[in-house]
Amino acid sequence: MKPIRNLSILVIVLLVGAFIVLRVATIYIPIGKVGVRTQQYGVFGKKGVVPRDFGPGWHREIPPIDKWETYDSTVQTLEMTRDPQRGSDRGRDDVQVQSADGYAVSVDVTVKYRIMEGKAYELFQNTGGGDKYKVVVRNAAQEACMGLFGQMRTEDLYNPDNRRQKAEEVYEELKISLADNFVEVIDVLIRDVQFDPEYENKIRSKKLADQDVELNKSLAKAEEMKGKTQVIEAETKKLVDIITKEKEAELVRMQAEADLEVATITAEYERYATEKRADADLLAAQKEAKGNLLVKTAEAEGEKLRNAAMQGVGGSTIVALEAAKNLNLSDVTISTMTVDLLDLDGMATKLGVQESR
Questions:
Q1: Cα–Cα distance list, 18 to 6, 135, 275, 294 (Å)
Q2: Domain co-membership, 85 together with 10
Q3: Are 50 and 59 in contact, with CB atoms under 8 Å apart?
Q4: What is the radius of gyration, based on Cα positions, of the chain?
Q5: FRET partner for 313 with CA separation of 20 to 30 A, picked from 212, 229, 243, 341?
Q6: 15 touches 100 (CB < 8 A)
Q7: Among residues 269, 292, 310, which one ends one of the domains?
């Protein structure tokens, strides 16, 4: 029973000891950081800075043998601006540039950079610990901006394309100069440019004068164009009048040709109709004459036949009948003593009917 208790105590002591050693003899490098270890004494190796970077995790730290320096391994921002609330440093921190024509220009610059991968220990050897490398970056950025933007005339700084081109030149210069300090430049941005108030007034006056010049040019151009417009209008009106007259003459000519054509067609029609009417009248007269001839011939033939018929007994009978029809006697007294009304032959003889032979 006693040995078990002693063993338990030993285990607890070992665990406590291990925890104390872990806490005292190690260091934790968080994500986004990189560590540099310096061996103050040559107990576990060569004395001095260990020639490699230590990434996130647990690492040996035995005081006073080991000494550590940690750096930010992410992309960092250097903000140099007039706004004291936004800059990387307190207060006004913009880049003061003197342009090629002697005017003061304030430039807000943003530089994106980071410590080169695997080069933190060399940066430590070159610049030392803490934020000393940030001072190097700031000084290099200010020097590059003042040198390159100082080559530009103030008027050129008004042009955004010129500013972007010059920012590219600053980026290339910083990329070279900071590479020797083991800093990688990601980008250089020109946020804003503010000019000397005296120059602002001068530019404003110049712009107004330029605008007046352009306005006068525009007015002169407008007058010139107005004169050209009037000439064009007159020429156009003249051309329209000519075209109108030519059109009217063409219409008259076309109307005359149409009238002539109509008159020709009408005359041709009248001639044809007259010819046809004459032919029709001639044919009608011929037909009528022929009809009349036939009628006369028929009448003559009828009369001839009638006369022939009148020569016989039938003719005297017809004459008697006609004579009887023509008698108009209102009151006749016939004596039955002398006339026998039943003697038809005798009556006929008295009326002129001849006896048949």
A1: 18, 41, 147, 166
A2: no
A3: no
A4: 72
A5: 341
A6: no
A7: 310
Question: What is d(CA 223, CA 356) in angstroms, rounded to the nearest whole number?
Answer: 137
- Residue 148 CA to residue 95 CA, distance in Å, equals 12
pLDDT at residue 355 greater than cutoff 70: no
Asked if 66 and 80 sit in the same domain, the reply is no
Last residue of a domain, one of 42, 72, 102: 72
* Residue 111: domain span: 76-195
Confidence band, pLDDT 50/70/90 cuts, at residue 344: low
Our count of domains for the chain comes to 3
Q: Which residue(s) pair with 173 in the sheet?
A: none
Report if residue 345 sits inside a domain.
no
Which of 20-24, 168-172, 308-312 is least confident?
A: 20-24
* 3-state SS assignment for residue 1: coil
Question: In whole angstroms, what is the distance from residue 37 CA to residue 59 CA?
Answer: 9
Q: Are 112 and 141 in contact (CB under 8 A)?
A: no
> Domain for residue 221, yes or no?
yes
Residues 84 and 181 in one domain: yes
What is the per-residue pLDDT for 197?
75
Judgement on whether residues 166 and 226 belong to the same structural domain of the protein = no
pLDDT at residue 322 above 90?
no
Contact 191, 108 (CB under 8 A): yes
In which band, very low, low, confident or very high, does the pLDDT at 135 lie, cut at 50, 70 and 90?
A: very high
Give the 3-state secondary structure of residue 188: strand
Between CA 123 and CA 36 the distance in angstroms is 10
Give me the residues paired with residue 58 across strands. Answer: 28
Residue 47 and residue 123 in one domain: no
Task: Assess contact for 55 and 30: CB atoms under 8 A.
Answer: no
Query: Does 252 fall in a domain?
Result: yes
What pLDDT was estimated at residue 26? Answer: 87
Residue 355 amino acid letter: E
Asked if residue 27 lies in contact with residue 59, where contact means CB atoms within 8 angstroms, the answer is: yes
User: Do 176 and 221 have their domain in common?
Assistant: no
Say how far apart CA 68 and CA 52 lie, in whole Å: 12
Whether 334 is in a domain gets the answer: no
